[in-house]
Queue: 2 jobs
Job 1
Amino acid sequence: MIWLSWRQLRTQAAVVLTALAALAITLAATRGQLSHLAASAGEGFLDAAGARRADSWLYLVTLVVVLVTPGVLGVFWGAPLVARELEAGTHRLAWTQSVTRTRWLATRLGVSTLAAAAAAGVLGQVARWWCAPIDTAVRAGHGNGGLLSQPRMSPVIFDARGLVPLGYAAFAVVLGVTVGMLVRRTVPAMALTLAVYVAVQIAVPLLVRPHLASPSHATSAITADTLHGFRGSGPPDAGGRIDALMVDVTAADAAGAWMLSSRTVDAAGKVVSPLPSTLADCLGVPDRAVGPDPVDPAAGGVRAGGLPPRGERVVAGGPAPAERQAGTREKACFAAIAQRGWQQKVTYHPDSHYWPLQGAETGLYLALTTLLAALCFWRIRRLS
Amino acid sequence: MNTPNAPTDGAGTTARTRGRAILRAAATGTPDPPPGLDAAADTDDTDTDTVDADGRDVALRARGLGKRYRGRWALSQCDLDIPAGRVVGLVGPNGAGKSTLLNLAVGMLTPTAGSVRVLGGRPGSGAAQLAKVGFVAQDTPTYPRLSVAEHLRLGAALNPGWDDAVARERVERLGLDPAARAGTLSGGQRAQLALTLGVAKRPRLLVLDEPVASLDPLARREFLADLMTAVAEHELSVLMSSHLVSDLERVCDHLVVLVASRVRVAGDIDRLLATHHRLTGPRRDPATLPADQQVITASHTDRQSTLLVRTDGPVHDPAWTRGQPSLEDLVLAYMRPTAPETAPAGRPTLEALR
């Protein structure tokens, strides 16, 4: 039975494993240079690595490959596993041999799921190992805002290395099998598997992952040194609305952290919203600079809320905060903030939560996998 | 048997011996499963699951068997005994429930109502039950990308009773290239491969669901001849469906006509032929026939009546010209929707079904 499972997986497995092995060998071969560069370049490592096209390119390829591999396995290994049998009628051959269909499914599902989980698990570990110098530098706050400076806690990078790809792959394959058993046709099952998998992959970082470990909180004073912009709508001087301030996080573990939310709170800890439009004074002349969301190396994290909604705009201070000429209006503005006791409160997952979150999320996906597998075993007894 | 015109044939002997042993002994050896272990979904758990009222071995027994798909009954209220040790043909119009019945018998489907027992066990209830029953499904599915040799390996891996010598001998005799992928085989060769899997598994009952439906006449004949060889060699009970009576006549010694889930007639073919007569004579009301002559179909012109009657005794009335109906005539007559007297006068009785 294991022979049959392997025989039916062989071609797809050969394609996928060859591609992954090629990537793994390339990574293994280039890792030495990266470590060497990290040791020699010091704080300038991320700049130096980012400037080397091969490293940037390999970083990006690894990121994409690890991200898409579980989905590909679910679509090409999982979805056709039962659906193709049902479509071609070969299930009538397979299920009338002297092996119960439960055992048939257990073996085929087991072989495919384990192979997929192993492939994705190894890939995740290789990616983590290759990216370790980069992650160390980002954690140390050496980020320069470039591609390599995304912290490993940020939602996309989190998915692309470490333990979680193993859970994703197991989930994707069993999801594919389940969908195939329900839809009964291969191509629609593949499409639906992809759609559901992508939806889950988007929903989990947004809705579930922040709660898999209890996040940290920190407050920062709002001063000329830390305030570097605000987000709002309408004219920034009067009549406009300010929704949020952009304040540098001063907490020690902010570098490499995943920012969940950043809110202005008053002395009692209550969220101040909306903020008075007079706060525009804090940034000096209102119309000075209107532009896209500035990249902020010091905050290092991904801002909660992401891009501003349509119709809003982001105003950033022109000169860096430290160099800003503190005019009278600015001084008065910051004095008003201090007098009201307003502070910026941030909720975030520091880098130290990386492995707890990886473990919890892998466990979550494996639990979902188990549920789907139970559904498969229930369902196969009713197929014909 | 709740159908009035479903004669079962009491005599176990058949003149159509095809050089094979009647498999009584094999079927009698089956012990009934302990009641506690096999209590699922059976309404008529009796110790007569393997023997019918006349003491004959039963390969398959259905009682009130029904299967519903999406609100439509593909088979309903089916009562049926299939004797063991025979090559049994199951014939009936499309939609009669033949395929559903066979799929229920091999455990591909589970009954919605009633029960079915095959060789004393519930179909698909476990590996042991699966091993007892071989199945060649409709359109004889095989894995297109596996080679012939890999199909044999598949059979060996999935069947503890696999007879590799038989499988190899058959493949060689049929001229199948072991390295050829099943997808490159002709329909006939694929059917032969599927039959090889079914036979080399060494089941006690081999179920074939329209195995020759998609084959050309030559391939069909070869397949059936090969099936008969296998049956003779391995002492199999066979249950085969087809809507081609001529195919069944060539290989079967027992026939079951299934129409709209009901058994219209069942019996050994020799006996069916011996007890059915086509009578042609002056126009006459069929009700005036002797009591032992059952009219199956009747057609009348102004002056003449043509009847198909079933009787165990001889037909003495000199007014009749007696003819021997072919098996096909007989089957088609039973497949008619009943009520022969409503048939338009002047048209041949056995024409234009459906």
Job 2
Amino acid sequence: MLTLNSFGIMKILVCISKTPDTTAKIAFTQNNTKFATDGVQWIINPYDEWYALVRAIELKEKDPSTVIHLITVGAADAEPIIRKALALGGDEAIRVNADSHDSFYIASQIAAIAKDGNYDLIFTGKETIDYNGSSIGGMVAELLDLPYISLATKFDLGGTTATVVREIEGGEETDSVSLPVVVSCQKGVAEQRIPNMKGIMSARTKPLKVVEPAAVEPLTNVVSFELPPAKAGVKLVPADNPEELIRLLHEEAKAF
Amino acid sequence: MSVLVFIDHSEGHVKKASLEALSYGAALAGQLGTTAEGIILGTVTEDLAALGKYGVKKIHQLAQESLNHLDAQVYARIIAEAAVATGANVLIFSNNLSGKAVAPRVAVRLKAGLVSGAVALPNISNGFVVKKNVFSGKAFANISLNSPIKIVSLNPNAFAPKAGEGQAAVAALSIQAGTAKVKVVSATQATGQVPLTEAEIVVSGGRGLKGPENWGMIEELAKLLGAATACSRPVADAHWRPHNEHVGQTGIAIAPNLYIAIGISGAIQHLAGVNRSKVIAVINKDPEAPFFKAADYGIVGDAFEVVPKLIQAVKKLKGIA
């Protein structure tokens, strides 16, 4: 279990995932069992970058003694992504040298690093844009027996207490919690920014530690992928007869 | 061996998404030749026994008011303990905001494989394989759950609730609730509106509407259809509409029966949040708007001329004036 680190220095761990670019063509190979990576641009998962990482950087700008570590679970091809994250900010990075299996496997690797790291805060993005699991934060928190605040839209620190606004079903909730805590971040927590030249230059020399994975058995595996059936194509209704759209939606599509 | 369904509630009412989860759990129990039970933490005003009509035989309740605010850590411990006590080997959550907070923690406690965002009943002909959305609605993955206990988190609007006959026995859980480490300072609920993630019809407006003063017709059309209102990111960023109406990749992802997009061009980031809608109708004056490629029905025309006529047509259909 984590305890608040005794040095009075805020330590933040930001979880970074590598995902295909938002506009990447989604296709599969090997009898629909593997994502087709040919020609795919890889990016930092947008929620990890825009919200989790940037909020950590903002906290460090307020209190420069803050230490930010980044962690990713991935093979060597994840290094350009973690370097890009370091160019935005963060002091050092850890790459757990493993293919990412399921959420439980990834969360277990992150928890294995975090349990000896004396982190006060662990930030994740709200979900990855490829697997859309939204599970890593909750799993890491449970593995470390920490409170977890999901889907934060605002995050502020006062000493060792965090005030967090989060989205709940049909509304929002303001929470107060003592550190350490795990928080998943979404829009509102921070404003997206782009790396500057100084950041890019300094990222080259920031430490990037590679560690071997803990022995963990994944609990699930992907059997196959499918693409949704292609749309039949849009049926256009003339602009001078919008009533026809209502008739079609009602009688043909039976949408209401 | 049984199926245990988590029942989510707010403001004293069981969420619609949980009725879907109950029906899904009951159908799965039928496949597995076992029974489905429910678990609810906190108190509601409605009659829990009546939820038996969705196919559950028994509902376990820990009726403490302190549990009416969902705390993920407290909830996960109670649910995991109840799952062990009732011999559940499959747990069902709705993949709504509550499910996303709690299910991953329960999965760790029970060493259970978790599929979040399921869109269909598991295929149990060879193992236990669940279809889920991946790549932000652009594909599906079939996931095999390989652990003795399995957790499925069902996407809202993916499985229609089926009401039949029957009453459920309501039993009190004897588990210590425990105290939450997270203190709730305040909570606000938008009452009296159709929640966006649960809405069967959504009417959404974009930059093409030119300003917040023009939302009257969007709201009127939505009200006539019993729909929720939504908007695109630029509209929320410009504060024309509240952020909780923003659908898209960085906003809320929805999957209604009908999504009507008015004055929205259909950028890929917007589509990522709405492409799971069963039917999409697009109204845009630009015939080149990318949204038409993702739509089932469309009108190339000016929203300010088209929408009032749509309102009249719906009124006529519903026999109003």
